Amino acid sequence: MSTETEVTVPFASAAAASGAPHVEVPVAYDAVILASFGGPEGQDDVIPFLRNVTRGRGIPEERLEEVGTHYRAFGGVSPINQQNRELKAALEAEIARRGLGLPVYWGNRNWAPYLEDAVSQAAADGHRTLLALATSAYSSYSSDRQYREDLARVLIDTGLGEGDDPVTIDKVRLFFDHPGFVEPFFEGVREAVEGWIADGVEPSTIHVLFSTHSIPTGDADRSGPRDVEWPEGGAYAAQHRAVAAYIMGRLAEEIPAVGTIGWDLVFQSRSGPPSQPWLEPDVNDRIAQLPGEGKAAVAIVPLGFVSDHMEVMWDLDNEALASAADAGLRAVRTRTPGTHPAFVAGLVDLIEERLNGTPAAERPHVTDLGPWYDVSRPGDCENARLGFLPAAAGLIP
């Protein structure tokens, strides 16, 4: 394969190699790589897993032990691997139903099965034109560019991206505003609000908190393409706010009485030192303020999460719901997409977009920010500490 400096998009299919934002010609992909974060599956796995997650960041062992208590409370087992097994099976069933004939290989960043295993097995099975689908919907280093770096690293380390018959890897667009991803969140908010109203709760006393993982403000400001002027919080916060606004606007249309319901974007799971600015407000701090604003009920929506993994089960189901109880609020944590039929169908729709070369103008999206790019733009989601490592599915910075 050509060296990185001689190509526009490293490790790309011929159709994506030009660097156009959207690939609008059909591509004959022969396999799908389901890429995810990974998680421990036993008490002995917890600390080695957390070392993988924090590698190179100088996190002391005592901090790892502190975070490890969250996993140990669930027997050392993160739910994410089982959720990915279920998602893989659901994707395979939907792909088969549509007659697409694409195998799905699953690999993680931080725990077995690793991405190296998935890509190597796909290559051993004779597949060369791969399409990656990461279980992250939004723009940020850890949710987008790091996955693309992982894919490039695997191709470099294994040598599969070189030679006369190289493996290529493209990636489906970020799906934060795809209808299939948004629908389960909307259904959860509607169910919570309708239930409270039916129970006599005044709509003006209901509040909705859309929660996502906090990240350092510097990382947030660098999320998204560098040639776009983003508001505070960068593309990461803008994408979440746009989806939340869509959900609340649609709710007001379907249930006119809810027009008085307020909402906020909040953040959770902060892990950095106190001296480093991270996105705020914290979900628990915002919950504590709600009684003083006359609120009686709060719906906590895990908008930044694809499934009920540890940050949802610990930080929301445990800590945030406890904060709501302390504040005297009625509270519910709404569902994540998981294997909701609309979500699974939506992911396969995204695969078919690339198989068919669907024009950008015909791609479904529920916010003005979409449809997002097939090929990441220059400088997208830079990691200031590491710089720009080789990354698949994006233009070289």
TrEMBL record:
Alphabetized Gene3D superfamilies for the sequence: 3.40.50.1400
Taxonomic lineage of the native organism: Bacteria, Bacillati, Actinomycetota, Actinomycetes, Micrococcales
Transmembrane domains' residue ranges: none
Subcellular locations according to the entry: Cytoplasm
Enzyme Commission code: 4.99.1.9
Protein name: Coproporphyrin III ferrochelatase
Binding-site list for Fe-coproporphyrin III: 78, 147
GO biological process, one term: heme biosynthetic process
Gene name tied to this protein: cpfC
Source organism of this protein record: Microbacterium sediminis
Keywords from the UniProt entry: Cytoplasm, Heme biosynthesis, Iron, Lyase, Metal-binding, Porphyrin biosynthesis
